[in-house]
Specification:
Blueprint (H helix, E strand, L loop, with lengths): L2 E6 L4 E6 L49 E4 L27 E7 L13 H19 L6 E8 L11 E7 L4 H17 L3 H12 L3 E4 L3 E4 L10 E5 L11 H22 L5 E6 L13 E5 L2 E3 L2 E2 L4 H6 L2 E3 L3 H9 L6 H4 L1
Helix pairs in contact: 1-4
Length: 343
């Protein structure tokens, strides 16, 4: 049993670990994803992400056969953002939110997830995201490129076709800004990158490691805020996907794929998550910034969500109802071949 606070060095905040709470009685809502793997067709005629189909904007998708990227039809930021209106007098402020928003389809197959793609296709996806970071990051006025995937109905996804989104913005998202500040300060204070110290601590302990390759690895961090929160990272400090060598990119693809397979295999289901690529801002030098991927699954048990409630929303500190060491052991114990493939 773990009952303590743990320091989150990247966010510079405390996380409460109370692993005994995971066994408390639950009479609340259960989510539908706890059931068996749902069978989907490879192509859906009215899916706006399938090849050749017409989207809500009237634009028609190409008959693509690999990774497919297009401008989001309903962007949260865009180059044609209207001028801001003056805020009410007093302390309130506002500013223009502009940039570019894109959708990246992983595969023409509607029925596959990232965990089910062949290793070569995961590598091709990361290559495409590398190119997107370079292209969008070089645009006038863009300060940051955020890549993320929302997977599963419980995180609000209406279309299961495998895809992620890219927001290239004239501002830096707050979490990335906090991480950049923390990593730069650590480098000045200790003359070594913060994330290298995190990797060294995780490898020295070993209990939270999941997948290891020569140039990349995955682990549930000591300071995890969600029960199965997982990091995938290259071993060398690189500011973004764009800075990875082909060999490093290949190992990141292998580690990411196996990590997602293990999540699915844990409960024999398509595991929902929010996955975010933490990349350095593009408008300045970011000393010590270490690119990594964070996977935040919202489930703490089959059918049970990790709800954000009083401690998180009201108090401002995450409360993790499980011990990261126990969750990592669970994931290491399952096969590395996807359960749907082995049937």
């Amino acid at each position: 049993m773990v009952w303590e606070q743990r320091w989150h060095p990247l966010r510079r905040e405390w996380v409460i670990i109370s692993s005994h709470r995971n066994e408390r009685p639950w009479q609340g809502e259960r989510v539908p994803e706890s059931g068996p793997h749902r069978s989907l067709p490879a192509y859906v005629p009215d899916c706006y992400l399938c090849p050749g189909n017409v989207r809500s904007s009237g634009q028609r998708n190409a008959q693509y056969s690999g990774v497919y990227v297009f401008d989001n039809d309903h962007p949260c930021v865009g180059p044609g953002a209207p001028p801001v209106t003056p805020p009410p007098a007093g302390l309130y402020r506002n500013s223009l939110a502009s940039g570019s928003a894109r959708v990246v389809c992983y595969s023409p197959r509607h029925d596959l997830t990232l965990a089910q793609l062949p290793e070569s296709e995961v590598f091709s996806l990361l290559q495409a995201l590398q190119a997107q970071y370079r292209e969008l990051g070089a645009l006038q006025g863009v300060r940051h490129v955020l890549v993320f995937e929302n997977k599963g109905e419980v995180v609000g996804v209406s279309n299961p076709h495998p895809h992620c989104q890219i927001y290239a913005t004239n501002f830096v998202f707050r979490t990335i800004e906090l991480e950049a500040e923390a990593q730069a300060a650590h480098l000045v204070a200790h003359d070594r990158p913060l994330f290298q110290d995190i990797l060294a601590a995780e490898e020295a302990d070993g209990r939270r490691l999941l997948v290891r390759r020569e140039q990349a690895l995955s682990f549930i961090p000591y300071f995890a805020r969600y029960p199965y929160e997982t990091y995938v990272a290259p071993r060398e400090t690189r500011a973004s996907l764009a800075h990875l060598t082909p060999a490093e990119l290949g190992d990141v693809a292998v580690v990411l794929r196996e990590t997602l397979i293990r999540l699915d295999n844990l409960w024999q289901m398509s595991f929902p998550y929010v996955m975010v690529l933490h990349q350095a801002p593009t408008d300045r030098a970011n000393p010590g910034f270490h690119f990594h991927i964070e996977i935040h699954p919202p489930l703490r048990k089959p059918g049970l969500l990790k709800y954000l409630a009083g401690p998180e929303i009201g108090g401002g500190n995450f409360l993790n109802d499980t011990a990261p060491e126990e969750k990592a052991a669970e994931l290491r114990a399952v096969p590395s071949v996807h359960y749907a493939q082995s049937k």
